[in-house]
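Weekly modeling sync, notes
Attendees: S.R. (lead), two postdocs, one rotation student

Agenda item 3: backlog of single-chain predictions. S.R. asked that every request posted to the team notebook include the full sequence so nobody has to chase files. The rotation student volunteered to paste the first one in as an example of the format we agreed on. Action items at the bottom.

Example entry:
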Amino acid sequence: MNWKLPFDVITCAWPRPVVSSGGIWQSAPEWDAKPMPTLPQRTWEDADGRLRLTIDWRDVFRGGFLTFIKGGEMRGFHVVFRIRVEEDGVLQFWDDDGSVVRRRGEILHEDRTAHPLTPHEIPVRRGDLLEFAQWQDIGDWVWKAMLVPTAPLDNAASLLPYLDAIRRRLAAPEGPALKMMTNGQNPVRGALSIYSMILNGYAPEQVLIYGEHQWTPEARLTLERLLPFVRIVPTSDVLDEVERFAGRRWRRDSASCWWVFKACVPLFCQPRTCCMLDDDVIVLDSVHDALETFRDHDLVYMRDSDYTDEYSAAWRYKARRSGPLRTGDFNAGLYWLRAIEDVRGLVRLGERASPHKTIFHIWEQGYVAVAYADRSTSALPSQRYLYPRFEGLPGDVLGYDYKDNPCGFASLHFGGIGNKPGDAIAALIAAAVLSRE
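Predicted structure, as returned to the notebook:
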């Protein structure tokens, strides 16, 4: 995909040796070194709502050699690369070791020392071509950069053109209510999850979001601006409903453990037949196969790893008495669930495992998995409902073709601990995700 990135590397030369002494680079940069035929491997990540690029030169130059250390160190070399800037602002960059930077032959920055990752900044204009020469003494060899534009940051603006289409879709609902619990740390990404479900997946009867007690004032304003069609459910209402069903102990646990709160939202809060969507799931295609399956199943879900042993141990599930746990691969990122009428049984089951002594995903996911173990359930195919943490993602987050969706994914769940996309990447991919038709 040809994203409008704020800046990017456009050429990179083969590494060339330097003359150094006492941790100081003394020779001149070889600005005219022969270019490599390919660009270096680059990683884009979210940082404070902006895109930050990282190049680990040791990864770039390690090749396929197996060593007992990381490798790719290229001690006593330097590399020259060029970047093009697409917006006015300030380029913040970090280097290990030092760099010399020039623009149109003029030196803008010169640091020839060896040091850990160190921050610097340079004012830039749209269209600038900057040449960086970065050297390597020993150990890590990393370069990072982020553009802070002159214009105010407004990632939310990328979603607003789709509001009218959202309202039209919601006028003809096709399935049960959609629920999301979000901590508001990435409100644009959370809104994109909901937009993508409605425009690409299905139109729910209503949309409810939870977790407002965790939101900053800025996150609340963003969510209210992007989601005027949803009902923000006050946390006090959720806790009142949980207490009415399950008692004061459950209210306390729901208030102190987000994983208990999140599990209670579908199990105890009306409407109790619903779809649960995490704020890191992007929907790319119709989910009517899931809705059709949900007609004669009580739980339809995307797959996780097989946690049969962990769920069974935490929730004291007896396979000899009840049969194998068929929901051991349940994942709470995206699922449809039909209400269990035996609420007392649900409460008794929930008291088998202490949320304070059980790891969060085993408590939350295991509770739902065991509660529905003897009911009619169906796991969705992982080829369509993809979990990149396990399966990978062709092209990575910024390289996949979301608009044409050549792999035929219904959804992508960027779950798990790690570098998941935030608001900056959500804003960048929004048009491709939401304009598929």
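Discussion: group reviewed the output briefly. The chain has a mean pLDDT of 94.
Action items: rotation student to repeat for the remaining queue; S.R. to check formatting next week.
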